Amino acid sequence: MSGTWREKRQPASFRGVPFFVESDSTPVGRRTQLHEYPQRDKPLVEDMGAKTRVVKMTAFVVGEDCLFQRDNLLHALNQPGAGELVHPWFGRMTVTPGEACDVSHERREGGLVRFELEFIEAGEKGYPVGVPNPASQLEDDSESLLESAIARYKAAMAVVNKARLAVVALQNGIAGIQMAIQRELGQVLGLVSSVEALADMLINAPGNFAAMIRAQFASVGGSNRSSGYRWGPSGGSAGATGVEADPEFSRTVARLADTEPGFSSFVSASRDITNQIELAQGLNGELQDSATAVNADGGLATAAVVQAARELMRDALIVQAVRVAASMPVVSAPAALPGVPGLAQQVAAPIDRPQVPVAADVIALREAISDALWSASLVATHEHFQLLEAVRKRVRDHLTAVAGAGVRLVEVERKESLPAVVLAYQLFADASRAGEIVTRNKVKHPGFLPAGVLQVAQE
């Protein structure tokens, strides 16, 4: 059963700035052109389309901070372009403020400011033009890179002579892979809980290792995940069938928990990317430094298995970092507040500000991912090199756009210690941003910021 009119009524606001509405009116009906002809009793009414919705409101703001509320609403009304109006009765609408907006004060109504508002419903642009989506293109390229990495692994494992594998040398060579699995693929530890279990998988079921890696990634354009392998013999050479995943194992890893959650915050995304790139660079260093040692201890076959597994794990970690980077949105920096609310008001109703990244942090992530991709491309085949370079270009373009919308850091100097909440209120007129200062400067206690130079966001 539908709710009452009181339950359906919504608090009015424009561009997120609330206000109260006494009355409103909106013209309805159709635009018509009347044609009257001589010697005819009935006219011809030509329908010219729906009327333009012009919303007129008699509104007000009230309270001890009415002037602050007034300035916020005036600031929202003076912004160029269309904005979102929450109408008490019609709900959300995209409108543009009209010329008939008016504000008035009266001495007898202290603490109350009246508005006469006019909003014109925004129309659609006539000729939409397609705009490339760098994040979506980056996901597509990362999918191609992952498939190429798996194909390289399968091709390398298909020609390995398993009878010549040295188990101890293999276990020593894949210790770094096991550490990466423990840190980034913790949900598969039940399948490969030790270096010995991982070595057994690479020797007896190398296709399962590739299926396990593939199952960590959602398919592009959706959340469905699969091992990415045919469950019958492949159409390639006879030797390639030995690296196909076991059907039951494929179904098991496909049912694992999703490891690609949506974007939650720039801080957590930066932390994930940093961890994944560090592990990838560590595996890349092992590929360059220890190939000779593995070959000497376990022979060519053991060295080939270690190299193939390391390359696949390294590329998978890079793809993970790229997918996290692709999820980072390009957001607009928040506009400066036209007025400063009192501290008591902030306690009662904290300021809601959009989450914006620090440009320097995003640029550092861009360079870290770019370096990892370049290091991997130095030892890649021609086809794999092209895919690595495509991803490197896309990730630079996307993260450059993310950084361009971010805030810059500035240094402030304080000669004495003070609480973070005080400094946040002094700098931003927003006491709730104290945690941002504490995290940025790695302060041990938020009540005692150290004297000296601190880094804060510039607004």
Could you give the topology of this structure?
Elements: H1 5-8, E1 13-14, E2 17-18, E3 20-25, E4 30-35, E5 44-50, E6 54-62, H2 66-77, E7 83-87, E8 91-97, E9 102-105, E10 112-121, H3 134-158, H4 167-173, H5 175-184, H6 195-204, H7 206-214, H8 247-254, H9 266-289, H10 291-327, H11 343-348, H12 359-377, H13 382-404, E11 409-414, H14 420-428, H15 434-441, E12 452-457
Antiparallel strand pairs: 1-2, 1-7, 3-6, 4-5, 6-10, 7-8, 8-10, 9-10, 11-12
* Helix-residue proportion: 40-55%
The rough form would be described as: elongated
The Cα radius of gyration reads 31 Å
Q: Largest beta sheet, briefly?
A: 8 strands, antiparallel
Q: What are the low-pLDDT stretches, counting only 5+ consecutive residues below 50? A: 220-241
Strand content: 15-25%
Order of helices and strands: HEEEEEEHEEEEHHHHHHHHHHHEHHE
Structural class: alpha+beta
Total domain count: 3
Tell me how many strands there are: 12
Query: In DSSP terms, counting alpha (H) and pi (I) runs of 4 or more, how many helices?
Result: 15
Distance between the termini: 48 Å
Q: Estimate the mean pLDDT confidence.
A: 81
